[in-house]
């Protein structure tokens, strides 16, 4: 079968290769891929990627085979999947099902072969059946939705009426905005030059305010909206130090700051001001866990989240180079690949 393989840690060391078709172990299912989304970690890499490995972890497909120990999943089921392929099962985080924090965890498309392929295998415990109202394109975005649910519901614990500020109107930021809106929050999304299309979509998806940072005036606008107190919650989704510094200035005393995007650089923060003077709560949010998935799929079943609106491009796997280029450009939002 054809698969997109990350051969080394070198930049752009990717090739579409012919590789053996996987065979499920006794506790695994085999999925025929229908759609797989291109994530920023596929584009730019991160420390968990262990080449050589088939990339791709945002995916949906159909069950075509299963191991002898697998129950409750049928051949022909339309599914999506968590990204956890292996856990130790014995650490305190595994015991509480915080699999995202297990130090021995392996992930789909990073340390285990992923879904930029015709087929992949994964443990049955990670599989979720798609709600009947969710197509394969939307199903491929369930994983970033689960990440957004983890950040908004489980980490930040956003409340109705709170003012939420999001830096970065990419797919993740737009999903965090939608989940926050479902909880009753007032959503502000910021972007920079070139983000106009994404900011417009943010408005369509329910953001109360969108701000182009190039035009300035963000502090004045937020002071107006919050009577000078600052926002209740900040989600930094862009992975930039400038957004981090802005967020810490614009958040109110006792507010919550969540680093949702991957910061690929060191930063200097005045902890006396942030923690002592303002009593700001600093939080991280690392991918997703089983409880995040249950909440995310329930939102989809209730038709409270619009995933299809994020999909701008669907291309065959053999056109992966075009897909990766589109994913890097801001006129695209979520780009999906499918086997030819």
TrEMBL record:
CDD domains: Zn_ADH4. Residues 11-337 form the Enoyl reductase (ER) domain. One of its GO terms (molecular function) is oxidoreductase activity. Gene3D superfamilies: Medium-chain alcohol dehydrogenases, catalytic domain, NAD(P)-binding Rossmann-like Domain. Pfam families: ADH_N, ADH_zinc_N. Keywords: Metal-binding, Oxidoreductase, Zinc. Its cofactor is Zn(2+). Belongs to the zinc-containing alcohol dehydrogenase family. This is Sorbitol dehydrogenase. It comes from bacterium (Candidatus Ratteibacteria) CG01_land_8_20_14_3_00_40_19. The lineage of its organism: Bacteria, Candidatus Ratteibacteria.
């Amino acid at each position: 079968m054809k698969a997109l393989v990350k051969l080394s840690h070198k930049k752009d060391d990717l090739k579409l290769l012919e590789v053996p078709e996987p065979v499920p172990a006794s506790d695994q299912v085999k999925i025929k891929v229908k759609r797989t989304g291109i994530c920023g970690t596929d584009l730019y890499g991160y420390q968990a990627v262990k080449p050589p490995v088939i990339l791709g972890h945002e995916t949906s497909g159909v069950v075509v085979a299963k191991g002898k120990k697998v129950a409750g999943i049928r051949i022909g089921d339309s599914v999506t999947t968590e990204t956890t392929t292996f856990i130790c099962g014995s650490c305190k985080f595994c015991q509480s099902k915080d699999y995202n924090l297990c130090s021995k965890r392996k992930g789909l498309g990073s340390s285990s072969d992923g879904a930029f392929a015709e087929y992949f295998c994964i443990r049955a415990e990670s599989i979720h059946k798609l709600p009947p109202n969710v197509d394969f394109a939307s199903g491929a975005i369930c994983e970033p939705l689960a990440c957004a649910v983890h950040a908004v519901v489980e980490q930040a614990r956003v409340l109705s009426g709170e003012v939420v500020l999001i830096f970065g109107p990419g797919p993740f930021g737009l999903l965090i905005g939608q989940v926050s809106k479902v909880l009753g929050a007032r959503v502000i999304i910021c972007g920079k030059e070139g983000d106009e299309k994404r900011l417009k979509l943010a408005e369509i998806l329910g953001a109360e305010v969108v701000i182009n940072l190039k035009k300035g005036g963000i502090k004045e606008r937020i002071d107006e909206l919050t009577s000078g107190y600052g926002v209740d919650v900040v989600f930094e989704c862009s992975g930039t130090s400038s957004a981090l510094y802005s967020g810490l200035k614009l958040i109110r005393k006792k507010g919550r700051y969540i680093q949702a995007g991957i910061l690929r650089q060191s930063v200097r923060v005045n902890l006396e001001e942030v923690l002592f003077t303002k009593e700001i709560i600093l939080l991280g949010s690392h991918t997703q866990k089983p409880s995040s998935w249950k909440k995310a799929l329930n939102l989809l079943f209730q038709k409270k989240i619009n995933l299809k609106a994020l999909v701008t491009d669907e291309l065959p796997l053999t056109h992966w180079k075009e897909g990766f280029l589109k994913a890097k450009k801001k006129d695209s939002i979520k780009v999906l690949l499918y086997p030819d």
